[in-house]
Amino acid sequence: MDKRHFARIGLIAAAALAMAACTSTQSRVTTTYYTIRGVSGEDLDREIAAKGPLKGHALASAAIKFVPAAVSYEESGGKCSYREAKFRIEAEMTLPRWQEHRQSNDPDLRIAWRNLSDYARQHEEHHIAIAEKYAAKIGKELMALPAKSTCDALDKSAQRVLQKNKRDHNREQLAFDAAEQKRLSALFD
Predict the structure, then answer these.
(1) Among 14, 73, 103, 169, which lies 20 to 30 A Cα-Cα from 153?
(2) pLDDT single digits (tens) 131-144
(3) Residue 64 forms beta bridges with which residues?
(4) Of 54, 50, 45, 51, nearest to 33 (Cα)?
(5) Which residues of 51-68 are buried (b: 16+ CB within 10 A; e: fewer)?
(6) Using one digit for the tens of pLDDT, what is the confidence trace for 68-81?
(7) Maximum distance among all Cα pairs of the chain, rounded to whole angstroms
(8) For residues 137 and 46, what is the distance between their CA atoms, to the nearest angstrom?
């Protein structure tokens, strides 16, 4: 190999490292499972009530946090503004795992379980998607704040943006759950 080949490899490696060092706003989602056991629908209901998230009041859950991925200031001309404001989501999904699903002699229960567990995952992923939308919205709104005389004054404006988005985010999450509850009630009533 000649020196030019090594130089190209070095440039490619440097570019890859630079890209890896960029601040990621990609969500970080972990999934944990709680194990349920049983051979009947009643067994599964009892296990979910005993072991499920929110003290058994939920089949699944997603604990969501907004995390600043990159927030920095720029001071220029006696004013302070945001140079960068990016947020990401960190979420922990908690889902059920039925231990004996392969041993069940009830094919209808196995199908119902597969559908229910798929729905639970999709439902929690939708909650995360709602949060991702607000993470991006927070960053955009912070970047749109007008420059202030001090960074402390800018922070006060930023707190108002964060509080408003937190309220709006919670409202949208609750509205999604209410709409899903209504939709499911209509299907099963």
Answers:
(1) 169
(2) 999 999 999 999 99
(3) 91
(4) 51
(5) ebbeeeeebbbbebebeb
(6) 999 999 999 999 99
(7) 75
(8) 41
How far is CA 141 from each of CA 78, 136, 138, 162, 165, rounded to the nearest angstrom?
Answer: 22, 9, 5, 9, 10
pTM for the full predicted model: 0.83
- What end-to-end distance do the CA atoms of the chain give, in Å? 73
Q: What is the pLDDT of residues 11-69, one digit of tens each?
A: 333 333 333 344 577 999 999 999 999 999 999 999 999 999 999 899 999 999 999 99
Residue 112 predicted with pLDDT over 50: yes
Residues in a beta bridge with 89: 66
In 10 A of CB 88, how many CB atoms? 21
Q: What is the C-alpha to C-alpha distance for residues 91 and 68, in angstroms, rounded to an integer?
A: 14
Question: Per the structure block, which two tokens stand in for 186?
Answer: 């209509």
Cα–Cα distance between 131 and 166 in angstroms, integer? Answer: 10
